[in-house]
Amino acid sequence: MAHPMTTKDGKPFDRASLESLMRRRLFYTPSFDIYGGVSGLYDYGPPGCALTNNIVDIWRKHFVLKENMLEVDCTMLTPYEVLKTSGHVDKFADWMCKDPKTGEIFRADHLVEEVLESRLKGDKEARGVKVEEKEEDPKKKKKKVKNITAIKLEDSVVQEYEEILAKIDNYNGEELGFLMKKYDIKNPATGGELLPPVSFNLMFQTSIGPSSNLPGYLRPETAQGQFLNFQKLLDFNQQTMPFASASIGKSFRNEISPRAGLLRVREFLMAEIEHFVDPEGGKKHQHFDEVKDVELELLNREVQLAGKTHVETTKIGKAVEIGLVDNETLGYFLARIQLFLLRIGVDPQKIRFRQHMANEMAHYATDCWDAELLTSYGWIECVGCADRSAYDLSVHMKKTGAPLVVREPRKEPLKIEEWQIDIEKKKFGPRFKKDGKTVEAAIEALTQDLREKLALDLEKEGKIIINVPGVGDGEVEVPKELIVIEKRTRVENVREYTPNVIEPSFGIGRIVYALCEHNYWTRAEDEARGVLSFPPTVAPTKVLIVPLSSHGDFKPFVRTLSNKLQDIGVSSRVDDSGASIGKRYSRNDELGTPLGITIDFQSVKDNTFTLRDRDTTKQVRASLDEICNSISNLVTGTEQWAEVAARLPAFEGQEVD
Ligand SMILES: Nc1ncnc2c1ncn2[C@@H]1O[C@H](COP(=O)(O)OP(=O)(O)OP(=O)(O)O)[C@@H](O)[C@H]1O
């Protein structure tokens, strides 16, 4: 369902024309296109790659460099055991429902959402409220929810629909099935009945090696590789806590019905941080003060449960203080995520943070906020920021026995009063024979409360009875000759704990697409002239070099300029095609190239060049050195165009088409 959006200059946003630009200019293209393509798989072309790389580069500087994070690059192929232990084999799933007649498959929550949204739209039309929606890619037409018929709904039904939509991510399969029945939701294309939702695991399964006896999966997130290396990373960090690891790489999810272009794909680039923190002491962050005044738009869980979508602008310091955001470390990262998104050119009006509802949270999370960006597809989660508690390290430690813990010398030794058990080993073996080890393990596992109770039994009865499944009838009697239970004081000099993990997880493809929507507009004088106003730091190519014509006199200047820009690390492209200057600039406006240098006859005479700004189309004229110096400043963000324009003489050139 399209959402009404406006461009930066206040005009209605036209998704079809942006998507056609992005394909035409090879930002991305369907993979295996000449074989008919496979949905949810896309290739990036040169500008898409450059844009992605620049965003990743800023991500590394903003997070990895700033916090001295430990970057790792782990394998994508992951053995079954790892993902079974992490819970992904059993729980990493969405709900799908099938049309038994046509064989079509729908993702249940998305279907309910689309149908209810389209009915609300029909209701608005019936009430005479104008709703704008541009047609999407004609290839997807068949899948689109049809029948947007102008039918007025009861006011109470409108309210019910809105409430359901506000918490659509909170329903499980049974509840979705109930909603489908209650609101008569069927195959939108045929009106056919659908089977009740069933769970569908999103991981791609494979087998590793020729014998197929090592089953595996393509990883659905980069996180597990980071957890499994925790102990080595802690050693690398000289046992110092807190610290964070980071990883950038592809992840794979077999999405049920991938649509919405780059927003929901089956193979995508993720950039993830695992920040390991001591769970004691409120998960403080040492740099929290630096961000406490950053204001975020927060949509909290209670508001959503009440069926509303109202956001509060709140300073992150306040949000943590009142407990809305659980702890400083989580809050620190929410603020840093927002600063990153703004730094790469996301529209500040189109960012919000939405808290997950209880049912919506992944199986490992205790609190989770998504950074959502407003696009023509609605609010889209682009970064998830979850408190995964000690879940992952604990389950992997339990399964493998590897010590995924921190051991810290205590400043003051800790005295612990506890019930300790001694076993009379010499007598224990002959008494329990082959079951000795099992009985011993059951005794070791007794809780403090039970030990206290059993100490009394031992004193009174001269024996204890404990449960040992699998030995005899499950109850084992241990006489007092074999066991001592006593309250003693233990002194602990080392503290051992499993760190908690705060995980910001970025979907780079979603960010790239949202950034394109936020920065796309068309020139007032000509709707067909699209512009992508990326900040110079992220723009795929920084400078277009345009000789006035193919005249031989310009060639040495083209070479000098290209070399000079290369020397200062600025990417440039030469367009010496026969097209008019205006057309050449226009082509590069579509690619988001922020700066253009024209070489004309004046350049041949006095070695001066014009420098053009993409957004204002204004030009200045200056010497080679001054031009390169200004470019360098603009590209690194140390100077803005307005400052350059104020410093250098204006050039009143014309862009003739
Ligand atoms: N199918 C996908 N295509 C592109 N990016 C994705 C996809 N699934 C997840 N991501 C990105 O990875 C990030 C972290 O993944 P996470 O598991 O939190 O997503 P998710 O909650 O499963 O997303 P959704 O609910 O939209 O499916 C998301 O914020 C998003 O940017």
Task: Please give a structural write-up.
The protein has 4 domains: 42-85 and 203-392 and 501-508, BirA Bifunctional Protein, domain 2, CATH 3.30.930; 93-201, Herpes Virus-1 (2-Layer Sandwich), CATH 3.30.40; 411-496, Signal recognition particle alu RNA binding heterodimer, srp9/1, CATH 3.30.720; 541-651, Anticodon-binding domain (Rossmann fold), CATH 3.40.50.800. The chain is α+β, with helices and mostly antiparallel strands and 657 residues long. It is 35% helix and 27% strand. A hairpin with a 7-residue loop joins strand 8 (205-207) and strand 9. The chain has a 9-stranded mixed sheet. It has a 6-stranded mixed sheet with strand order 25-24-26-27-28-29, with helices on both faces. The two termini are 37 Å apart. It is built from 23 helices and 29 strands. Adenosine-5'-triphosphate binds next to strand 11, strand 16, strand 21 and helix 18.
